[in-house]
Amino acid sequence: MKIQAPKGTFDILPYGCGEETWRQSGLWQYVEAIIRQAASEYGYLEIRTPIYERTELFDRGVGETTDIVSKEMFTFKDRSERLMSLRPEGTASTARAFVEHNLSLHGSAHKFFYIGPMFRYERPQSGRYRQHHQFGVEAYGPGGPEQDAEVIDLLLYVYRWLGLKNLTVHINSVGDADSRAKYRDALVQYLKPHVSSLSEESQVRFEKNPLRILDSKDPKDKELVQHAPSILKYLTPEAEKHFHAVCHLLGKLGIDYVVNDKIVRGLDYYNQTVFEVLTNDLGAQNTIGAGGRYDGLVAQFDGPDIPAVGFATGLERVLQVMMAQQTPWNAPAGPFVYFIPLGDEAKETCFLLAAQCRKAHIPASVELMAKKVGPAIQNAVRAGAVHCCVIGIDEMAKGRAVLKELATRQESEISLEIAELERLYARRTD
Ligand code: ATP
Ligand code: MG
Question: Considering only CA atoms, which of 317, 338, 345 is closest in space to residue 421?
Fold first, then answer.
């Protein structure tokens, strides 16, 4: 039996595969390059944390009653019987690293970003994978509304740069601890007469963490929650001030948003601002990015009491929206010259020319398989080559050959001196 990739995972291939055009590595490289550039323009620095951590980190950091921890974690024992989990998200690991390395000693504000795989044991379906990838940011230090607005602005800047259209920002406040305690009472009062009609899961949530019910995906729960009291009515004056200030700044930045008092987000660590970015182009899995403020998390890991705000966006969903909206994108450039030998005599010449090119940092490739020019040119096109250059006995004797630009079919005769290729490469316009 042929071995296949595990259920809910996928390969990212150089040529894409059938309908799943978003699985081309060139597209991923294009998107990741834009993300890195955008993060850098906003002053965020990269952090890389391990793919697995002690399970305890997520139990404590994400919250034991959340879907992620209670149902979705890939947990295993290492050979010394320690409980480990593949990371389901990046926020807890970033906070752990921040505390472990005393990064607070390096200044009062810290802005991190990460790109990498996350693991959740979900029922595989379109837009939902067991290994998916997230771009996320975490900004530690500033507790004011400017920092909330900046991360939302960065997320939308990335989406805009990638060319995504028709996105909606939903924003809410879950207030501070006082606001939530008062709201929790009101929500419990409202739900009490309906407990038996809640989904089984939400009946457990009702006992353990009633706010979580607002995040339920069960249609009956959703219906009930529609008429639940609004958390925005229970905000303390400070929480209300913060929320209004964030909305004001978004307005100043020209960002359209919808206030949605039912967003609580699926993780326990949030307070104050929470937000989601939605698309209509993906069917059921319509959230492409989400985040919020989590001021208590770093202190919870025995670090300094430092406020924090961040977001994470799923790259699969971003790429799928790009494909659904036929967003233009560019694959990274392939070889500048693709040498095609005519006959065995020319093989070594081509091979050595390509080697010289690479020494001069000119990307180059040689056709080593095809016996005919036609199929060789097809190979050059598939490799993303800019030019091809066919070399036979005549060209070798003259030291000159025709350079053909594959996109325009324009031809020019060049000398086979490396200096000439260097000149051409320096003048390229891509
Ligand atoms: P959902 O409500 O869709 O389950 P979530 O609340 O679990 O999402 P977050 O934990 O906020 O999602 O993760 C951030 C982003 O990561 C999501 O907005 C989504 O784009 C992406 N994401 C989360 N889980 C998956 C998954 N299993 N497969 C693909 N992308 C995912
Ligand atoms: Mg989820």
Answer: 338
Residue the block writes with tokens 């044991």: 121
Q: Is 88 in the pocket of ligand 1 (CB under 6 A)?
A: no
pTM equals: 0.94
Averaged in consecutive runs of 10 residues, what is the pLDDT profile of the chain (430 residues)?
94 85 95 98 98 96 86 96 98 97 96 98 91 98 98 98 97 94 94 93 90 89 93 96 98 97 81 95 88 94 96 97 95 94 95 97 96 95 95 96 96 95 88
**Contacts with 291 (C-beta within 8 Å, 6 or more apart), sequence order:** 136, 151, 152, 155, 274, 275, 309, 310, 311, 312
Ligand 1 and 89: CB distance under 6 A? yes
With a 6 Å cutoff on the Cβ, whether 131 touches ligand 1 is no
Are the beta carbons of 38 and 135 closer than 8 angstroms? Answer: no
Residue with tokens 């790009």, as numbered in its chain: 322
State the Cα–Cα distance between residues 132 and 89, nearest whole angstrom: 10
**148 CB near ligand 1 (under 6 Å):** no
**Single-letter code of the amino acid located at 95:** A
Let me know: does 39 contact 153? Beta carbons within 8 Å.
Answer: no
269 in contact with ligand 1, CB cutoff 6 A:
no
Token pair in block for residue 188: 């419990």
| pLDDT given for residue 70 in this prediction | 86
Q: How close is the Cα of 384 to the center of ligand 2, in Å?
A: 37
pLDDT of residue 277: 97
Q: List the Cα angle 38/41/47 in 5-degree steps.
A: 70
Residue identifier of the C-alpha nearest atom 25 of ligand 1: 128
